[in-house]
Amino acid sequence: MTASRGRTGRPPLTETRRAEIRREIARAAVELFVTQGVASTTGEQIGRAVGLSARTVWRYFPSKESCVTPLFSEGVDAVSAFLRQWPPGRPLREAVDRWLTEGADIAGGPDRGTVGALVRLTRTEPGLRAVWLRTHDEAEQAFARALAERSGLPADDLRVTTRAAMFNAALRAAVEHHAWHGDRAPEERDAAGAELVETLRQALAVAAQGVG
Protein backbone atom coordinates (compact mmCIF):
# COMPACT_ATOMS: atom_id res chain seq x y z
CA MET A 1 0.00 0.00 0.00
CA THR A 2 1.44 3.35 -1.00
CA ALA A 3 1.40 6.10 1.59
CA SER A 4 -0.42 9.24 0.50
CA ARG A 5 1.76 12.25 -0.05
CA GLY A 6 1.15 15.34 1.99
CA ARG A 7 1.16 18.74 0.41
CA THR A 8 4.61 20.26 0.30
CA GLY A 9 5.79 23.83 -0.05
CA ARG A 10 4.43 27.01 1.45
CA PRO A 11 0.71 27.22 2.22
CA PRO A 12 -1.24 29.61 -0.01
CA LEU A 13 -1.56 33.18 1.21
CA THR A 14 -4.90 34.39 2.46
CA GLU A 15 -6.61 37.26 0.67
CA THR A 16 -6.00 39.42 3.75
CA ARG A 17 -2.27 38.73 3.66
CA ARG A 18 -2.12 39.33 -0.08
CA ALA A 19 -3.79 42.71 0.45
CA GLU A 20 -1.28 43.53 3.18
CA ILE A 21 1.63 42.68 0.90
CA ARG A 22 0.18 44.83 -1.88
CA ARG A 23 -0.10 47.75 0.51
CA GLU A 24 3.45 47.24 1.82
CA ILE A 25 4.72 47.32 -1.76
CA ALA A 26 2.66 50.44 -2.46
CA ARG A 27 4.06 52.32 0.54
CA ALA A 28 7.62 51.33 -0.33
CA ALA A 29 7.14 52.42 -3.94
CA VAL A 30 5.80 55.83 -2.92
CA GLU A 31 8.68 56.35 -0.50
CA LEU A 32 11.19 55.62 -3.25
CA PHE A 33 9.32 57.69 -5.84
CA VAL A 34 9.28 60.70 -3.52
CA THR A 35 12.92 60.44 -2.43
CA GLN A 36 14.63 59.54 -5.71
CA GLY A 37 12.07 59.90 -8.50
CA VAL A 38 10.09 57.41 -10.51
CA ALA A 39 12.64 57.03 -13.29
CA SER A 40 15.43 56.14 -10.84
CA THR A 41 13.34 53.56 -8.97
CA THR A 42 13.55 49.90 -9.95
CA GLY A 43 11.46 46.86 -9.12
CA GLU A 44 14.46 45.41 -7.32
CA GLN A 45 14.61 48.43 -5.01
CA ILE A 46 10.89 48.28 -4.28
CA GLY A 47 11.10 44.58 -3.48
CA ARG A 48 14.20 44.97 -1.33
CA ALA A 49 12.44 47.63 0.76
CA VAL A 50 9.81 45.08 1.83
CA GLY A 51 11.95 41.95 1.79
CA LEU A 52 10.70 40.59 -1.53
CA SER A 53 12.28 39.80 -4.88
CA ALA A 54 11.54 41.90 -7.93
CA ARG A 55 9.93 38.80 -9.43
CA THR A 56 7.45 38.72 -6.55
CA VAL A 57 6.70 42.44 -6.98
CA TRP A 58 5.84 41.86 -10.65
CA ARG A 59 3.60 39.00 -9.58
CA TYR A 60 1.45 41.55 -7.76
CA PHE A 61 1.77 44.50 -10.15
CA PRO A 62 2.45 44.79 -13.90
CA SER A 63 4.60 47.93 -13.60
CA LYS A 64 6.33 50.02 -10.96
CA GLU A 65 3.82 52.85 -11.38
CA SER A 66 0.90 50.47 -10.80
CA CYS A 67 2.40 49.51 -7.43
CA VAL A 68 0.69 52.56 -5.91
CA THR A 69 -2.82 51.42 -6.92
CA PRO A 70 -3.83 50.13 -3.43
CA LEU A 71 -3.32 53.55 -1.88
CA PHE A 72 -5.76 55.06 -4.36
CA SER A 73 -8.28 52.21 -4.35
CA GLU A 74 -8.65 52.27 -0.56
CA GLY A 75 -10.29 55.66 -0.84
CA VAL A 76 -12.62 54.41 -3.57
CA ASP A 77 -13.73 51.51 -1.38
CA ALA A 78 -14.38 53.83 1.57
CA VAL A 79 -16.48 56.23 -0.52
CA SER A 80 -18.45 53.42 -2.16
CA ALA A 81 -19.32 52.03 1.28
CA PHE A 82 -20.44 55.50 2.38
CA LEU A 83 -22.70 55.90 -0.65
CA ARG A 84 -24.36 52.54 -0.06
CA GLN A 85 -25.06 53.50 3.58
CA TRP A 86 -26.33 57.01 2.75
CA PRO A 87 -30.10 56.89 3.45
CA PRO A 88 -32.41 57.86 0.56
CA GLY A 89 -33.86 61.35 0.91
CA ARG A 90 -31.03 62.60 3.09
CA PRO A 91 -29.14 65.61 1.63
CA LEU A 92 -25.66 64.69 0.43
CA ARG A 93 -23.98 67.62 2.15
CA GLU A 94 -25.55 66.72 5.49
CA ALA A 95 -24.51 63.09 5.12
CA VAL A 96 -20.94 64.02 4.14
CA ASP A 97 -20.61 66.48 7.03
CA ARG A 98 -21.64 63.81 9.50
CA TRP A 99 -19.39 61.21 7.92
CA LEU A 100 -16.34 63.48 7.97
CA THR A 101 -17.10 64.62 11.51
CA GLU A 102 -17.16 60.98 12.62
CA GLY A 103 -13.63 60.58 11.31
CA ALA A 104 -14.09 58.88 7.94
CA ASP A 105 -11.43 59.54 5.33
CA ILE A 106 -12.55 60.04 1.74
CA ALA A 107 -9.07 60.74 0.49
CA GLY A 108 -7.44 57.37 0.74
CA GLY A 109 -7.40 55.69 4.11
CA PRO A 110 -5.51 56.68 7.24
CA ASP A 111 -2.21 57.61 5.63
CA ARG A 112 -3.05 61.06 4.28
CA GLY A 113 0.58 62.20 4.14
CA THR A 114 1.60 59.33 1.88
CA VAL A 115 -1.41 59.75 -0.38
CA GLY A 116 -0.84 63.52 -0.57
CA ALA A 117 2.78 63.04 -1.64
CA LEU A 118 1.64 60.52 -4.24
CA VAL A 119 -1.04 62.81 -5.66
CA ARG A 120 1.53 65.61 -5.96
CA LEU A 121 3.70 63.30 -8.06
CA THR A 122 0.82 62.66 -10.47
CA ARG A 123 1.20 66.24 -11.65
CA THR A 124 4.65 65.61 -13.13
CA GLU A 125 4.83 61.84 -13.65
CA PRO A 126 2.73 60.65 -16.63
CA GLY A 127 2.82 57.01 -15.54
CA LEU A 128 1.45 57.82 -12.09
CA ARG A 129 -1.06 60.22 -13.62
CA ALA A 130 -2.38 57.38 -15.77
CA VAL A 131 -2.81 55.17 -12.68
CA TRP A 132 -4.58 57.99 -10.80
CA LEU A 133 -7.00 58.67 -13.65
CA ARG A 134 -7.64 54.98 -14.27
CA THR A 135 -8.47 54.53 -10.59
CA HIS A 136 -11.01 57.34 -10.80
CA ASP A 137 -12.45 55.91 -13.99
CA GLU A 138 -13.04 52.64 -12.16
CA ALA A 139 -14.27 54.59 -9.11
CA GLU A 140 -16.96 56.25 -11.16
CA GLN A 141 -18.39 52.87 -12.07
CA ALA A 142 -18.26 51.78 -8.41
CA PHE A 143 -19.99 55.00 -7.33
CA ALA A 144 -22.69 54.46 -9.95
CA ARG A 145 -23.38 50.97 -8.63
CA ALA A 146 -23.58 52.30 -5.07
CA LEU A 147 -25.91 55.16 -6.07
CA ALA A 148 -28.06 52.73 -8.04
CA GLU A 149 -28.45 50.51 -4.97
CA ARG A 150 -29.72 53.36 -2.80
CA SER A 151 -31.99 54.84 -5.49
CA GLY A 152 -33.45 51.63 -6.89
CA LEU A 153 -32.45 52.66 -10.42
CA PRO A 154 -30.30 50.69 -12.89
CA ALA A 155 -26.57 51.42 -12.68
CA ASP A 156 -26.59 52.59 -16.32
CA ASP A 157 -29.49 55.01 -15.81
CA LEU A 158 -28.41 58.46 -17.05
CA ARG A 159 -29.37 60.11 -13.76
CA VAL A 160 -27.22 57.66 -11.84
CA THR A 161 -24.20 57.86 -14.15
CA THR A 162 -24.34 61.67 -14.19
CA ARG A 163 -24.49 61.90 -10.40
CA ALA A 164 -21.65 59.41 -10.08
CA ALA A 165 -19.55 61.42 -12.54
CA MET A 166 -20.16 64.69 -10.67
CA PHE A 167 -19.44 63.08 -7.30
CA ASN A 168 -16.26 61.46 -8.62
CA ALA A 169 -15.03 64.67 -10.25
CA ALA A 170 -15.65 66.67 -7.07
CA LEU A 171 -13.62 64.22 -4.99
CA ARG A 172 -10.72 64.18 -7.45
CA ALA A 173 -10.69 67.96 -7.78
CA ALA A 174 -10.71 68.42 -4.00
CA VAL A 175 -7.89 65.95 -3.33
CA GLU A 176 -5.75 67.36 -6.15
CA HIS A 177 -6.39 70.96 -5.07
CA HIS A 178 -5.33 70.17 -1.53
CA ALA A 179 -2.31 68.05 -2.49
CA TRP A 180 -0.95 70.48 -5.06
CA HIS A 181 -0.78 73.29 -2.53
CA GLY A 182 2.38 71.68 -1.25
CA ASP A 183 3.68 69.39 1.46
CA ARG A 184 3.36 70.10 5.16
CA ALA A 185 5.82 69.84 8.01
CA PRO A 186 4.94 67.15 10.60
CA GLU A 187 3.75 69.76 13.09
CA GLU A 188 1.31 71.12 10.50
CA ARG A 189 -0.27 67.78 9.53
CA ASP A 190 -3.31 68.17 11.81
CA ALA A 191 -4.12 71.56 10.29
CA ALA A 192 -3.61 70.08 6.81
CA GLY A 193 -6.06 67.30 7.61
CA ALA A 194 -8.70 69.82 8.68
CA GLU A 195 -8.09 71.78 5.48
CA LEU A 196 -8.56 68.65 3.40
CA VAL A 197 -11.89 67.94 5.07
CA GLU A 198 -13.04 71.50 4.41
CA THR A 199 -11.88 71.31 0.78
CA LEU A 200 -13.88 68.10 0.32
CA ARG A 201 -16.96 69.73 1.83
CA GLN A 202 -16.68 72.72 -0.50
CA ALA A 203 -16.18 70.60 -3.62
CA LEU A 204 -19.09 68.30 -2.81
CA ALA A 205 -21.30 71.31 -2.05
CA VAL A 206 -20.54 72.69 -5.51
CA ALA A 207 -21.34 69.28 -7.06
CA ALA A 208 -24.63 69.16 -5.14
CA GLN A 209 -25.61 72.55 -6.63
CA GLY A 210 -25.19 71.18 -10.14
CA VAL A 211 -23.72 72.84 -13.20
CA GLY A 212 -25.79 75.96 -12.62
Automatic annotation (TrEMBL):
Annotated ranges, domain HTH tetR-type? 19-79
Q: Which Pfam families match?
A: TetR_C_14, TetR_N
Under the heading InterPro entries, the entry gives:
Homeodomain-like_sf (IPR009057), HTH-type_TetR-like_transc_reg (IPR050109), HTH_TetR (IPR001647), MftR_C (IPR041347)
The molecular function terms of the Gene Ontology recorded here are:
DNA-binding transcription factor activity; transcription cis-regulatory region binding
Look up the DNA-binding region in the UniProt entry and give its residue ranges.
42-61
Record keywords: DNA-binding, Plasmid, Transcription, Transcription regulation
Matches recorded under PANTHER family: HTH-TYPE TRANSCRIPTIONAL REGULATOR RUTR, MYCOFACTOCIN BIOSYNTHESIS TRANSCRIPTIONAL REGULATOR MFTR-RELATED
What name appears for this protein in its UniProt entry?
Answer: TetR family transcriptional regulator
Species of provenance: Streptomyces fungicidicus
